[in-house]
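To assess whether the prediction recovers the assembly geometry, we first specified each molecular entity separately, as shown.
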Amino acid sequence: MLEQLLIFTRGGLILWTCKELGNALKGSPIDTLIRSCLLEERSGAASYNYDAPGAAYTLKWTFHNELGLVFVAVYQRILHLLYVDELLAMAKREFSEIYDPKRMNYNDFDETFRQLRKEAEARAEELKKSKHVGKPVIDGKKQGQVKKGGFEGGNKKKSEANDGGDGDTGKSYKLETGHSNGNHVNIEGSRAVVANSKENASSNVGAFDVSKLQKLRSKGGKKTDTVVNKGSNVHPKKKITKKNRVWDDSPQESKLDFTDPLEENGNENIEVVGTDHGESMMDKEEIISSDSEDESEEVGKESKPDTKKKGWFSSMFQSIAGKANLEKSDLEPALKALKDRLMTKNVAEEIAEKLCESVAASLEGKKQASFTRISSKVQAAMEEALVRILTPRRSIDILRDVHAAKEQRKPYVVVFVGVNGVGKSTNLAKVAYWLLQHEISVMMAACDTFRSGAVEQLRTHARRLQIPIFEKGYEKDPAIVAKEAIQEAARNGSDVVLVDTAGRMQDNEPLMRALSKLVYLNNPDLVLFVGEALVGNDAVDQLSKFNQKLADLSTSPNPRLIDGILLTKFDTIDDKVGAALSMVYISGAPVMFVGCGQSYTDLKKLNVKSIVKTLLK
Amino acid sequence: MEGMEQWRNEAKQWLQQGIEYAHQIPPTQLYAAAAVLLLTTLFFLIIRLFKRTKSSTIVLTGLTGSGKTVLFYQLRDGSSHQGTVTSMEPNEGTFILHSESSKKGKIKPVHLVDVPGHSRLRPKLDEFLPQAAGIVFVVDALEFLPNLRGVSEYLYDILTKASVVKRKVPVLICCNKADKVTAHSKEFIRKQLEKEIDKLRVSRSGISEADVANEFTLGIPGEAFSFSHCSNKVTIAESSGLTGEISQVEQFIREHVRP
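The predicted structure of the complete assembly is given in tokenized form:
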């Protein structure tokens, strides 16, 4: 049954809790809900899952935007209560009638709520009874499809749990069974999952790999009850020796490794160019244009130049008169226009969709003040939401972290990950240059042992910057190279180790596993995802898959996820800055650096206000 | 129609009479009258300006989970009702403090603002700081050491904001949850904060961040930082939101919001 139902104000005061359901909630689900969901602009989602030691809850909520109230219902995840949404809506209606800002005590609501609950439960019972009649028929048909259904459910649930990054790492444990035949729970489970996975319909379904399915089917069902969620790495790692690819009839090259025999002090061969390129742009203050305030007003005026004459007249009339309450249908045209504008600025489509839903949820039911247009109100709400998302959740002062690590006499390890060709090595050198300017000793670790020329590239950078580089050549295990690099850094007293890895596509299973092993083995202080600002909808896929794979394939209970984002090639996009928003929204990680050019000084910090201004222009 | 004509004629006559009268007054008198009018309006405006600079806003801020909302409701109603959750919006109110409501005489109501401490909602603080007459920085004395870095960074940011330094806004560091057994003492907290801010000075000196500009530096370079180096007054006190031990906070508020 329902664990708890709370009513609280947006300012944080609890107005009413149900005293009948007196169970104390384990952990702090409400606070976590607020921090990881409502403040992250995911309030358009259907529900939120919370896991604490000893409990697994699902939370559902609804807002009363006019009075500034939030209604939250908590129940055990195993029970799929169907009446919660209805109950919340009814409770909202009843409570808003007796609400008074001066009143703090609402004990009379207990009685009302008891009745509402009985009604809702009764209605749910009826619905269930009517469903039961049709069930045996479906049972027979679904026998053959149970396995697949169970799998789909399992995969979806797994990826649903990891959607959104670090907030949501709840690992579901009951739907991974692929072999229970015609299990009642299984069918209900998969149906419920299908019902619950509205919010993640997009990218995660694509991860379903048919070959995985066949492999697992052949392995036999050994995971019916155990708490396992890593169905993907069942098969043992087979060590495949790499066979050289033969392109044509040319004789095989015996030697593929063309690196020069190591000359640690081969500096005399190449002239060392003095590397003082001036101050890195990280330290320069951004000159924000002072006419930003005027611009925002102008935008409000000219935002709807092409509405029909009649529409303009009626909207003017409404704005003066002030309609009673904002309905979703009123907000829709304004939201759609805003969504299109965001998408023209290269924000991923599903992110724009989710954002608009969240803004709609926060504006619905609000009283429209006179002399304001709906579009300006929506714009203001969207601006606030964007500032909130882009403001980092925790401090991104890397220098402070480095100093803290220095005190503990350990090197501060940063790992750069990303897909192919986004600019990891280039930006690694820029970050090294910036750190050097602040009198921090840096060491580079060349763990890109795959791409030809990667080690030489880093070596050149190291020579120009005059910092040590740890390399082991090509075709070595990157995780081991990184480990040795960190030990070397601890030995020679470097403060920071920057680890370069090979670019890899997010769908490539063996490479993602290797990356996860590197992260798990070395436990870096910062996992920096390098993404280019030119990317479009793929940003969502990249980040979510990287996070998911890092979580799944790691063998520790607290997997390391992406801690920060480095946005590159920012100078190539004029004002299509949406990739920043997509990446931050989907992963929850802040943007720590912005690369805006190809020389050492082209590294900036993200200016939240200017990005928001550009997005809404 | 005839009534209208009559009315219009009468109005015209009155107008003509008024103009004749005005022409009769010698010009110097007219100028004198206008000057007096101007002076009195200026006088009133200046008085109002002076009155406005004495604001009565006290801002409650601190990290999330330190107890600001509980303190707010204690100050206002004398109890924290049924508990609180993480605030998503600021709590504002203009009222007489609960403990003073029994006093007789004219007491100026205090405008108290409780700003959410969640890092995503930090920009809201900037809306209220320009009108603040005093800042109460609430610190969780129980979970102090794990959050030490976050607390000191936030405190450093506040102490180096232009609106705080220029107007010399007094700050009270309030060590909340002092009723718990394992809560730290205010001396310990003060020493730890001074040490951390000293370190922050070194790492933040000269760097300007794009989002929050540390426009001023704290303290005297070369010497270990101490709160006495700040140009505005920084004091430290203990309190307990849950039990209602908020006398030191109330004292601070009364000091800086003069009736």
